[in-house]
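Bug #77: duplicate submission created two jobs. Keeping one. Sequence:
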Amino acid sequence: MTGFSRTQEVVHEIGPTGRFALRATSADIKVQRAEGDTARVSIQFEIRAADEAEADRILEAAQFRVAAERGSLEVSEPDRGENLGLGALARLLGGSPSRARAETIVAQVPARAHVTVAGVSAELVVTGLEGIQEYRTVSGDSVLTDLAGDVKISSVSGEVSLRGVGPIALRANTVSGDLIAFAPRFDRTRAVTVSGDIDLEGELAPGSEHRIETVSGDLGMGAVNGMTLEVRGLSTDVSVSLPHRSEGTRDRRRYVIGDGAASLVFSSMSGDVTVGNARRYESRLTATPPAPPVPPSAPRAPRQPLGADEQLAVLRALEAGEIDVDEAARRLGGEPTDG
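Kept job's structure:
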């Protein structure tokens, strides 16, 4: 067998705010800002074949499916649809390798397009978009640069790095991977992670929801403006190197930094919090030695610890999404539930 290179090209006008969707397994993906209203996709294949003619026949069968309609374009691998990742799983389990492999995909789309990208075992690089965006990856790192707009990220076993050049409304859900996100302003923030750490830097818009939930991951916050940080966690240590005042009990503390205008809630079972001056943006806050620790609250009656089976049931409920981190912490701490 000999190796051959082939390229599939897709071009379709979707308009300045049209929809674009890409679903792929294994191929590295690049999504770039395009001038104009047209989306262009270039898919580079590596093919094992006896000769040029056979390579052409294999390409015909391996080409990505294209669904082009007015105002939208969807490009996806053949015979996978919503079961994205089955092909990759078969290869991992020892199945026969395909004779055609999509190595790289480069997509150019209008900056304000509604973009959805899903990849498995793939590296994802996105540059210059500012519309509604959704990125879902499994076992691959994501580098998202020069972004603005509404950004939703779902990642399993991959690092995520996001750099905003304009306001970002961020929703992120990660498993076993760190999230680094910085932007001039976060209009709203909702990030949930199981074991990965979160680094966040930028202005938090006052009057909006900003919430971070982790099971064991830490939060590092580079503050630009004043905020009220509420920490909910039985085993969470907090370090704030900015002027602040603190209040509350060990499992629910509040730190008022600067004018306290923005609100950030951090909930965790064992993750810690560090808050300091922003490094990339001009801060309106001044660093100062850490404030004294929060004084302990009055002693409480001892709680009856949960047994091993009960603890496992709580963790399973958390994993299934039936309860949130706050409720899991209360139950594991022996507090009664509302139900």
